[in-house]
Design a protein that fits this description.
Order of helices and strands: EHEHEHEHHEHEHEHEH
Distance between the termini: 25 Å
Helix content: 40-55%
Number of helices: 9
Length: 223
């Protein structure tokens, strides 16, 4: 499978304009990325712009802190799906995880999954805020709550994905869910390392660099 099909082409900055979203969608079509990942306000626009393409629309929910009520997350997720989202990336309630209120963490994820039905749900752990044991526990809760993906990071915290964390997540979940590595992945070589470590999807705003860097390398070695 082409590396472009691993990429969720991402634009989540608060200052993103309609023009920025149009450029994002045009790029996703041109480079045949798997999806665009946008804030929920822009889901309907992105869906309209991508209607005659195979590019999917992914929406973040409870982003980037994850500290809003479960009801708010579930409502936002349901509305995003109604607007055309093909996938939902929600942020885990980090405070409840650290408080060891695992029932609340489970309910937070389960209620969002219940609200969106068959739509794939990716749960963002924000690994830079968690210990090894907390990452493992979060993964176990995600599996219990029927999450489809475990995602490493929002890209808005102090650091993003790490290969160590992806390998740990893979060891914990095995093949019971998929992995999305996100945060700080900006070049082709790094993206391949994450895929080799077990990532099924790459969330990045540097997708064009990742795919064109590879093309340039091939061209430069083509004697």
């Amino acid at each position: 499978m082409s590396i472009s099909q691993y990429i969720d082409h991402t634009l989540l900055k608060s200052a993103a304009t309609k023009t920025d979203i149009k450029v994002l969608c045009d790029e996703a079509k041109q480079y045949r990325f798997y999806s665009v990942c946008v804030n929920s306000y822009y889901v309907a626009l992105a869906k309209h712009l991508l209607i005659r393409s195979n590019v999917k629309v992914c929406s973040v929910v409870g982003f980037p802190l994850g500290a809003m009520s479960t009801e708010a997350k579930a409502f936002e997720a349901k509305k995003a799906v109604e607007d055309g989202a093909d996938e939902i990336d929600m942020v885990i309630n980090i405070g409840m995880l650290k408080s060891k209120n695992y029932v609340a963490v489970y309910k937070d994820i389960f209620d969002v999954k219940l609200a969106i039905g068959h739509i794939p749900l990716k749960v963002i752990l924000e690994i830079s805020e968690l210990s090894k044991n907390e990452i493992i526990k979060a993964c176990q809760i995600c599996l219990d709550a029927k999450a489809d993906f475990i995602k490493t990071s929002t890209g808005f915290s102090k650091s993003g994905a790490t290969l160590t964390a992806v390998k740990m997540i893979k060891k914990t979940i095995k093949n019971k869910a998929k992995i999305k590595a996100s945060g700080g992945i900006k070049d082709h070589e790094t993206a391949l390392k994450y895929i080799d470590a077990g990532a099924d999807r790459i969330g990045t705003s540097s997708g064009i660099n990742i795919v064109t860097e590879k093309k340039s390398t091939v061209e430069n070695t083509d004697y």
